[in-house]
Design goal:
alpha/beta; Nucleotidyltransferase, domain 5; 6-stranded mixed β-sheet; 13 strands; 24% strand
């Protein structure tokens, strides 16, 4: 039985695995390669080709690929953590040519959210769900009744005179030399603003820091329920595979 390949492209690593879309799980352990430096589109495509070769016999159909950028008609108009030569590139067409396979390109936070809606903390949740990934920055994915509103960049809103992700991101703890208690106050302020703007029914907190959710989620006081992501670091790859198979627009 053939499966779908999902590839998650990040600033430090490029990870991929074949995904069983019935179970929402990897068929084999993921393969990870270091993101090349400089992380040009051509260099990243070479790294993705290594992953495709590893799993080529097990996958069929389009490949799902996440990038840390909005994706508008296949174009990446902005790029956060990769080489700036990605900016305004028709990355979907470029990668389709380089990998010699149809590629479905998707924003990385959107992909993680798609996976959580399908198989994780957001499954069967009606209304408005906001997935927030906390790491070097803040990524967001917005859903209503399970339908994705793509390319939201709500980590970049201004709060108290500064860009929200500068303090709401978990990386702020290291930069500011503070612990979870003080950082939770910054996250509280950010989520309060999200409540006022969106009035969601559920917040899902993802990113690597979600492993430590017991250290900060109980400190938050919000009217909206806040839960940790369930799929952890597998979410981006699974979500990319779902998008490739056309499960989410």
């Amino acid at each position: 039985m053939k499966h779908v390949l999902g590839i998650d492209v990040g600033g430090s690593g490029i990870k991929g695995a074949p995904v069983d879309l019935a179970a929402g799980a990897f068929v084999q352990p993921r393969m990870k390669v270091s993101t090349p430096s400089p992380s040009t589109p051509a260099a990243c495509a070479q790294a993705m080709t290594r992953i495709l070769r590893r799993f080529d016999a097990q996958v069929s159909g389009p490949i799902g690929v996440t990038v840390p950028a909005p994706v508008v008609g296949g174009v990446t108009p902005f790029m956060a953590n990769l080489d700036k030569s990605w900016v305004d590139l028709d990355a979907d067409a470029f990668l389709t040519e380089k990998l010699q396979r149809d590629v479905a390109l998707v924003n990385d936070a959107d992909a993680a959210g798609v996976a959580e809606i399908a198989f994780g903390a957001g499954r069967n949740q009606a209304g408005t769900v906001v997935m927030i990934t906390l790491g070097t920055g803040v990524g967001t994915a917005l859903f209503h009744d399970g339908h994705l509103v793509p390319n939201t960049e709500l980590g970049h809103i201004e709060i108290d005179g500064h860009e929200a992700e500068k303090r709401a991101a978990s990386s702020y703890m290291q930069r500011a030399h503070i612990g979870f208690g003080k950082w939770a106050k910054e996250l509280q302020r950010y989520l309060e603003m999200m409540e006022k703007l969106l009035w969601p029914d559920l917040f899902i907190i993802g990113g690597g820091v979600s492993r430590d959710h017991a250290r900060f989620l109980p400190l938050l006081q919000l009217r909206t329920p806040v839960v940790p992501a369930e799929l952890r670091n597998e979410a981006g790859i699974i979500g990319a595979a779902l998008v490739a198979r056309g499960r989410f627009a």
